[in-house]
Design a protein that fits this description.
membrane; about 575 residues; single chain; DctM
Length: about 575
Amino acid sequence: MYDTLNRFEKVLFSLMSVFLVGFYSFSAVLRPAANQFHVGIYVVITYMLIFLLYKSKIPFLRVLDYLLMILSLLVCGYFMYNYEALNYRAGAETDMDKYVAVVGVLIGIEAARRVVGFVFVIIGIIMILYGVYGMYMPDLIAHPGDTFIGICTFIYYQADGVFGIMANVLATYVLLFVLFGAFLESSGAQKFFIDFPLAAVGHRVGGPAKVAVIASAMFGSISGSAIANTVSTGAFTIPLMKKAGFRPHVAGGIEPAASIGGMFMPPIMGAGGFIMSELTGVPYSRIMVIAIFPALMYFFSVFVMIHYEAKIHNIRGDKSEIGATQILKKEWYYTVPLLLITALMLIGYSPGFAAVLGICSCILLSWVKKDTRIGLKGFVEASRQGAESSLKVGATVGVIGIIIAVLTYSGLILTFADIVIDIAGGRLFLTILLIALASLILGMGVPVTAAYLITAVVAVPALTHLGVNEVAAHMIVYWLSQDSNITPPVCIAAFAGATIAQANMWRTAFASFKFAKFLYLAPFLFGYVPGFSLNGTSGDIIKAMVLIAMGTWFFAYLLSGAWYYTLFKKEPAPYRD
């Protein structure tokens, strides 16, 4: 999309991208910006980049894009400049305050429409209507309501609104880690993330598919997006799997199933891990430690299923010309940025500080090879790519602000837990199933990070009320929020895999759904096994881990269907797609 901009627009886009890198790096390392500037600058630049990049479809309406950019600058600037005064007159805003709020809310909706699509926008509009006409709702969810202008004012200025938790998390953590991923890729590390597992396991039973799992774990831990992971690593691994003998729809399904594991794998875990830390008050380093074992079990389950799928059909890959040890000796330094940011966060430094040093380490490492060196031009290019990648989630801040603010205003946050518990009859098993259903439906039209935040706000209290510890409750919601990536009918990551594999989309989607089954087992383990979230004595935790590892192997073995051919001494049917 960047290539469709004219020369002036490209320069403007690059300048704003570099400013984002500079401002938030300075804020993370040297002097934190005041709250209004910290979130305000992120929101205004995100909106301006969106209207610059996601053009109006009718050429002569390009002037509207520039008008929206100017309005974004004015309304966000108004919030930042009048921040203290707005806090003092909260509940007694002037007419100008209210008009600015209405424009700010509408701009946020339009930004989301351009990037995310109409479904997400419709949800935002429904929430506004619910805020206005709350008195006409059923008694269970009724509230006094307010005027349209009054609701917009609450959404725009309150701490739960547009400049609330989503904007704060994106500005504080996610943007810098998305930028870190762009710089890491520019340094040449992505090739290492594929070459190393290819040499290590590519020649074994199901080797190319196992490469997809390992590469997705390595690259996915910093990409922050299951779809980006599927497209980037899948462009190499899916053709490799097909060449080895996997059916196209199976090859296309394995990659997205492996890719969503990157959302659970430290050190980055997408945006969800940072939101979890913000909501729970638990340090991100602790969230990382809790997430490691479940993430490894997820990849282990996919790995085992792939192994038996390949064993049934006797699929092996080709041996790499260069050994894994040789590649590791030659390019081990590409692991330094990941190890560095992980170590910094574990010893107590802020994620933002760790991300900035990670970016610096990527720039230094890029100079090891002449063809990957990041000079001034490379710095601008990586900044632009990172900023462009951040728009996918950044575009949601306005509508997320609407949803969270209206839920707070109406009091539904407080009553939703009671509603879910009543429907489930106080049973944890049914409560988790209801949350899974709600998350899947929400994920059909909302990005997974947004689905997690929205669901967590209303569902976590229900889980904690039933005795689940707070972090485990958030993990349940976070894992379930990823299901829309691989669960039909709307499974974008699976469809992306099908496109690369040139396979039937629905067969690919159901294959991906099969290989990702641990995604649905883990929430119940979080709910019923405290040791799974490191809650309990050392002995209890170790015992739980050993039993879960054994159970995961057996679970994956059963789902693979290999036992059927062994038990009945059957030969598999010939492969047909």
